[in-house]
Amino acid sequence: MKLIAVGDNVVDCYLDQQTYYPGGNCVNVAVNAKKNGAESAAYIGIFATDDKAQHIKYALNEEAVDFQFSRIADGISGQPQVSLTDEGDRVFVGGPKNTVQHKLKLQLVPDELDYISGFDLCHVSCYSSMESELPKLSKVINVSFDFSNRVEIDYVKSIAPYINYAFFSAADLNDQELDQFIEQVKEFDFKVFALTRGSQPAVFVCKGERFDQRLNPIQVVDTMGAGDSLIGGFLVNYINGESPEAALEKATKSAEITCGMYGGFGYPRSF
């Protein structure tokens, strides 16, 4: 299985540590796809010209994630500020709004679409400002999309025709709201859609059948990137032929590893 992610890159800045870590949903999913056995993983995004962008690229090189088609734009990287609760949950508390990703968005050209078509799956997120490019992408490759907490059904409906695998953060939904949302999303005929629920078991729906995650007792250091690890782990194993149950079990192990370290996949650097 070969996966490419197109969209966001950031450094997560931990205020209590005075340390930042490479991240961003698309970067994290690409890295975790490679960690979970993808034959190859790649990333296309917009890198800034600061030291933080250089550190992200260093980490991607170390993790064997190709980024040859990424752009470079003069400016600063996305750098959300993070605080951790006593339970290890990450809380975003702000960050600059004049980053290159706030100012610019990707428009894919034919050479890039040809390159992307050589992969099995393209992952995008709602943080990537890629909604207008989804029609192009869906013509050349299957698309995975992380909606995060964007659970407004009109938003989902507007881009659902271009998406094969959908992921949602549904921690704010109660049980009744969750069941109602699942029934609404079933109408869009995704190959798979999944809803993470914070500390509660995630729910995966594959070809209309529901699978509930089995959580194991672990020591949580930091939840940053755990959902991205779950996504990367599931996609690689499921598309490689594992059953939904087996793919979810391996994805859960991937997320557990991420919860045992700081940052989305390590590589700390001091401010």
UniProtKB/TrEMBL annotation:
InterPro entries listed in its UniProt record: Carboh/pur_kinase_PfkB_CS, PfkB_Carbo_kinase, PfkB_dom, Ribokinase-like
Residue intervals of the Carbohydrate kinase PfkB domain: 12-263
Superkingdom field: Bacteria
Record-stated family: Belongs to the carbohydrate kinase PfkB family.
Pfam family, one: PfkB
Name listed for the protein in its UniProt record: PfkB family carbohydrate kinase
Keyword annotations from UniProtKB, A to Z: Kinase, Transferase
MF (Gene Ontology): kinase activity
PROSITE patterns: PFKB_KINASES_2
